[in-house]
Amino acid sequence: MRIAILSRGPGLYSTRRLVEAGQARGHDVQVLDTLHCYMNINSLDSSIHYNGQELAPFDAVIPRIGASITFYGTAVLRQFEMMGVYPLNESVAISRSRDKLRSMQLMARKNIGMPVTGFAHSPDDIPDLIRMVGGAPLVIKLLEGTQGIGVVLAETRKAAESVIEAFMGLKANIMVQEFIKEAGGADIRCFVVGDKVVAAMKRQAAEGEFRSNLHRGGTASLIRITPKERATAVLAAKTMGLNVAGVDILRSNNGPVVMEVNSSPGIEGIEQSTGIDIATKIIMFIEKTAKANSTRTRGRG
Q1: Does residue 236 contact residue 247 with C-beta atoms inside 8 Å?
Q2: Domains of the chain (ranges plus CATH)?
Q3: pTM for the structure as a whole
């Protein structure tokens, strides 16, 4: 099989591991810098060029598209899809999961547990918005934030009003969510491949911090998840349309609640904390499911 990996960082742990796993199973794996791909779009013979040459056909593409290049990255992935290449995650599913508000609305429609979430535009709505999610303390999130950046815990109503007014003054899109105090600064990252959670780790926030992201100093450890948590993670990934996803869950008094569904989850933390070879499981999934012209984007332009 010829497999392309769309990644800006060939030296990144996740990209390296996918290359190693693919090559170990006898595949020809090539890393392509997403921003260096450029496209010939026409109705007769669309193509993708790279470093001055047209790319030879691939059987599958693994998108590792960073949030900051979602627009261009999904455009490149759509081009692969239009050419009949099998994507590990489809462009439409990545776009859906990157839109925090849309993803929350889709999960609500499927009755997936999640924190009470509010979204508003006018500053006149702030007091009612705060009441709607249960009052302070509450969490305020930038819709475009990643890795815990742009996430603020407001411990009092006054603090919440000040932060919301500041964000709105900057014309930033935000949402507010109830604070799940009983989670104790910990969340669970479930790594979904296909219709299974292949690994799970507990991420614990550093002392004095409420965000459990490893990039923010959180620590990871192996954890046993419940059948309900497992089913919730799989359903959340399926709702987004993702074959591979990192689903972040909090343990609340009302059961598991989904905080986010990540379409390009990092492999390093979960492989090191669980000892599970995630990269090989991803390659094996591609071997089992890759079919030409199998995406919904094919033929839609």
Answers
A1: yes
A2: 2-95 (3.40.50.20), 117-179 (3.30.1490.20), 182-263 (3.30.470.20)
A3: 0.86
Q: Find tokens 């059961």 and name the residue.
A: 255
Hey, what are 238's tokens? 């399926």
Which amino acid, 102?
A: R
How far apart, in whole angstroms, are the C-alpha atoms of residue 54 and residue 32?
Answer: 13
| Chain-centroid distance, C-alpha 288 | 23
For 166, residues 6+ apart whose C-beta sits below 8 A from its C-beta are: none
For residue 119, list its beta bridge partners: 175
DSSP sequence for 187-222: EEEEEEETTEEEEEEEEEPPTT-----GGGT-EEEE
b/e per residue 229-248 (b: at least 16 CB within 10 A): bbebbbbbbbbbbbbbbbbb
Strands 86-87 and 60-63, sheet pairing: parallel
Gap between the Cα atoms of 76 and 35, Å rounded: 9
Quick one: angle between helices 70-82 and 91-98, nearest 10?
160
Q: What residue has token string 């090559």?
A: 23
Sheet holding 117-119, edge to edge: 117-119, 174-178, 138-142, 151-154
In tens digits, the chain (301 residues) has pLDDT values of 999 999 999 999 999 999 999 999 999 999 999 999 999 988 778 899 999 999 999 999 999 999 889 999 999 999 999 999 999 999 999 999 998 889 999 999 999 999 999 888 776 778 888 999 988 899 988 876 555 577 888 889 999 989 888 888 888 788 899 988 888 878 999 999 999 999 999 988 766 555 555 555 567 788 999 999 999 999 999 999 999 999 999 999 989 999 999 999 999 999 999 999 999 999 999 999 988 776 665 444 3
